[in-house]
Amino acid sequence: AEYLNSKQSAELQKEIRRLEKEKAAMQKRKAELDAIFKKLYEDSVLNRITSEQFQMLSASYTEEQAKLTESLPQRESEIHRLKETVSNTAAFLDKAKR
């Protein structure tokens, strides 16, 4: 049981690390998009870009930001679920030992 638990736990920990890296990258990109929006708005206000360019760029960035906003909670719940699985397995083995 311990061997299976350690093997499963190692695989789950690897998956958790992968998801956490993915989540961190998504959070970083979301912050980048916020900065891009500010710069884009300033460029539009100062007439450095045309309103058509602003509309096109803001639409694509808005779509990307919406996808990130939707995906981040999903990643967090997956990470939480996997951590619970590891915890539950360890608790089960403790009870089985007793």
Estimate the helix proportion, in percent. over 70%
Structural class: mainly alpha
Number of helices: 2
Report the mean per-residue pLDDT as an integer. Answer: 89
Could you describe the 3D structure shown?
The protein is mainly α and 98 residues long. It is 93% helix and 0% strand. It has 2 helices and no strands. The protein has helices at residues 2-45, 51-97. The longest helix has 47 residues, at 51-97. The chain is rod-shaped and about 70 Å long.
Give a short summary of the structure.
The chain is an all-alpha fold and 98 residues long. It has two helices and no strands.
Features:
single chain, 98 residues, mainly alpha, 2 helices, 0% strand, rod-shaped
What does the secondary structure layout of this molecule look like, with pairings?
Elements: H1 2-45, H2 51-97
